[in-house]
Design a protein that fits this description.
Strand order of the largest sheet: 1-2
Number of domains: 3
CATH architecture of the largest domain: Up-down Bundle
Shape: globular
Strand content: under 5%
Helix content: 40-55%
Order of helices and strands: HHHHEEHHHHHHHHHHHHHHHEEHHH
CATH superfamily of the largest domain: M75 peptidase, HXXE motif
Structural class: mainly alpha
Radius of gyration: 28 Å
Distance between the termini: 92 Å
CATH class of the largest domain: Mainly Alpha
Number of strands: 4
């Protein structure tokens, strides 16, 4: 009897030991579940706070509160959103667009329609300054925010998030801060962005702590925490956008944080999200060599770049075989020494008569969704064939050109080696030309060197110019770091167009009549006279400027912007997206901005 009792008890102890050990192993292998539950709980807390502050602001608007009180409450609401921005932007991008997107219509290109803007940026325009006559509109916008807050709650209750996704979202948030945030993109009127950034950074810090294990808690995580604390402390002491030291804060603090996050990722064994993205998942900073992947902008996998494609594309780019009468190559109008422009006011036709627009630079054009000034082609493949077949530019026939290429033994062999076919095809010709153009982005400027740690790479004047570019001159809210074009970071899935109110020339007396992108969307008023925001990299080599080449120097361009664009100059530009408020830059300050732009020239 004793033996019988002893045996089951031993078995019982053994089972308990096995179960406990299994649970321990499971917990050691999967410490993620509790951590991610806490991540979600923190999101729900912040969302509840966002909802509460939205209701408080609505109550204040319904009463008789003064403007200063309303603005303070609105700033509290914005900072609450910043605490959960990393998650909403990543997991619910469409919701994010209507919480904190630009106060501009969203365009549905397929339907040629505009979607009304809403959210925090629209509210900012209504509250700075506040006109009681807009009370009902403010309340309507706040009710929309309540709906979006409810959507956040419902969606995060339903979706499953993983550790690699959370890390990727946090990394993107720091890059968002390093481009849009530090430029004041989402607070163009109130300019409170420097006060808001600490809230977004602290949210990154809190969430990293929630997903961290012992692997990083004594290594990368403390370093990240220290750097975020130092960044937040600096930001709290320096809140004036016109005097902020952007040129040192970005490399010394923001670049350091994104670099340390890669160390954290390695120590935590977090895999990179397997998706082709413009910003390489292994890039430590925006300014790392090979940080950007042009293959994120190709129309399909078979169009991806290769060394062989680039080499063949360069050869054909410089070959007159692509024109109808063998008299012109792509390089005729896109000269390497001029950053692949031609130095003329307008492009010249085959008969040497001026065309409608200035020859755009091909430098860094790979990183744009939309080619030509009016963005009428989605990618570089479409751009190359459109130029070749244009009767005024090259007047080529792609079928005849392919026949000529296949009749050339050297070309036929080169295409066969790359594409493994017997003869070259039209899409392959388009692809090799596009591949060469995609290679025209070296990121070797003095500015890049400075951002990589070489503090001697830029002059004192250029550093002052960059601080003006980011702050007082407000250039970076349209020309986003670090590409300095209109492709929106950190996702780079959209390229923006702007309406500047351009004049026919630098006399600024008569508005330019070119409808730009509006030609293809005649029923969309917002797109009339709109043009792609091109890169500023190598801009000192690409004069004259603007889509019509009407501005011969950068001084003329700066004076145009300094006056508030066409609208600020008194021209008719009702749908101008550029602020018409004067920048009040002195001649010396404009010269310093131009000096900085010279630091964007590749070597």
């Amino acid at each position: 009897m004793k033996i019988i009792l002893k045996y089951p008890f031993a078995v019982f102890l053994f089972i308990i030991f096995i179960v406990f050990g299994t649970l321990q192993c499971t917990q050691n292998q999967q410490p993620l579940q509790d951590d991610l539950s806490e991540v979600k709980r923190e999101l729900f807390r912040n969302n509840n706070d966002f909802l509460s502050r939205t209701n408080q602001l609505m109550e204040m608007i319904s009463g008789t509160q003064d403007q200063a009180s309303l603005q303070r409450k609105f700033e509290e609401l914005r900072t609450t959103y910043k605490k959960m921005e990393w998650a909403v932007e990543y997991f619910l991008p469409q919701t994010a667009r209507f919480i904190n997107g630009p106060a501009l219509p969203e365009i549905e290109m397929q339907e040629h329609t505009e979607i009304e803007p809403e959210g925090l940026q629209v509210l900012e325009e209504l509250l700075y300054p506040y006109d009681p006559a807009n009370k009902e509109e403010v309340i309507r916008m706040l009710k929309n925010l309540i709906n979006k807050s409810n959507a956040i709650k419902v969606n995060f209750q339903a979706i499953t998030i993983s550790k690699d996704q959370v890390f990727d979202a946090l990394r993107q948030e720091v890059f968002r801060i390093s481009s849009l945030g530090i430029a004041g993109f989402d607070t163009p009127v109130s300019a409170t962005f420097l006060k808001e950034i600490p809230y977004a950074l602290n949210a990154v810090k809190t969430t990293l702590q929630q997903i961290a294990t012992e692997k990083s808690k004594e290594k990368a995580l403390p370093e990240i925490n220290t750097e975020i604390d130092a960044s937040a402390a600096y930001l709290k002491k320096n809140t004036d956008k016109n005097t902020f030291d952007y040129i040192n804060f970005i490399p010394d603090h923001l670049n350091t944080i994104t670099s340390l996050m890669i160390d954290f990722q390695k120590q935590e064994d977090i895999p990179a999200i397997e998706v082709t993205s413009a910003l390489n998942k292994k890039a430590r900073t925006f300014y790392s060599k090979n940080a950007f992947n042009p293959n994120a902008f190709v129309p399909g996998k078979q169009f991806e770049m290769s060394v062989e494609k680039v080499k063949l594309g360069k050869q054909l780019f410089n070959d007159n075989i692509l024109s109808d009468n063998n008299s012109r190559s792509c390089a005729t109008c896109h000269i390497a020494e001029k950053a692949f422009t031609d130095g003329r006011e307008k492009s010249m036709s085959l008969t040497d008569s001026p065309l409608q627009r200035n020859t755009p630079s091909l430098s860094y054009s790979a990183f744009q969704h939309g080619q030509f000034w009016d963005m009428r082609k989605d990618d570089l493949e479409g751009q190359s064939s459109a130029v070749i077949t244009n009767k005024e530019e090259m007047h080529g026939d792609l079928s005849k050109i392919i026949a000529k290429i296949n009749a050339n033994a050297q070309y036929r062999t080169a295409f066969a080696n790359i594409y493994k076919g017997k003869n070259a095809e039209i899409w392959q010709l388009q692809n090799v030309l596009a591949s060469y153009i995609r290679s025209l982005a070296s990121f070797t400027s003095d500015f890049d060197e400075y951002m990589r740690g070489n503090k001697k790479a830029m002059t004192k004047s250029q550093k002052k110019g960059f601080n003006l570019f980011m702050g007082k001159a407000q250039c970076a809210i349209c020309h986003f770091l670090p590409l300095f074009n209109g492709t929106v970071p950190p996702n780079y899935t959209k390229t923006e167009q702007e309406v500047l109110g351009i004049a026919e020339n630098s006399s600024n007396r008569t508005a330019d009549k070119d409808s730009g992108r509006g030609k293809f969307h005649e029923t969309v008023a917002f797109l009339q006279h709109s043009f792609k925001t091109p890169t500023l990299r190598n801009i000192s080599k690409t004069a004259p400027y603007m889509h019509n080449g009407g501005y011969k120097t950068l001084q003329e361009v700066m004076q145009f912007y300094n006056k508030g664009g066409g609208k600020g100059l008194g021209l008719k530009a009702g749908n101008q997206t550029l602020s018409d408020a004067p920048l009040d830059l002195s001649e010396k300050e404009m010269a310093e901005v131009i000096d900085f732009l010279n630091a964007l020239d590749d070597h």
